[in-house]
Specification:
By secondary structure, this protein is an alpha+beta fold. Helix content is 39%, strand content 30%.
Length: 142
């Protein structure tokens, strides 16, 4: 074997070792779907009637009605219970509120669901926030 051939073999072997090490490192990394930009919609649904300011439903029934509407519109949702309040002139108002989180959807679909929520709960409006977030479906360190 010539000196040139020997050097070429050494360089190729070194390259093979480096590539094998890199492949081993990548194979050992956890499997996750990389975080991606997304819009998360957060809806605040008051449950007092817009005309009488009295609860339209008891809390458990209100949550159940909202869940029925959300399932008809979306593949999934998250609901948190909250208490809202405000002052109008001298009068203090308080109401049971549902905070609804939606991802992997669009504003048109959110508005369609909000239309149903407004009708069923006799609301003047539903507060909708659109937040730019990063989402990731993490499967654990396997």
């Amino acid at each position: 074997m010539s000196k040139k051939s020997g050097i070429a073999v050494i360089v190729l072997c070194a390259a093979a070792v480096v590539l094998a090490a890199a492949a081993l490192i990548v194979a050992c990394l956890p499997c996750t779907k990389a975080a991606q930009g997304d819009t998360q919609y957060v809806l605040y649904l008051g449950t007092n009637d817009k005309d009488s300011n009295e609860p339209v439903f008891m809390p458990d029934e209100a949550k159940e009605k909202a869940q029925e509407i959300l399932l008809a519109h979306f593949g999934g949702y998250t609901i948190q219970e909250a208490n809202g309040g405000w002052i109008d002139g001298e009068k203090v108002y308080r109401e049971y509120t549902l905070v609804i989180y939606l991802s992997d959807t669009d504003l048109k679909s959110v508005h369609a669901a909000a239309d149903d929520l407004i009708r069923v709960f006799n609301q003047s409006s539903v507060l909708i926030q659109a937040n730019q977030i990063a989402t990731e479906f993490y499967s654990g360190n396997k």
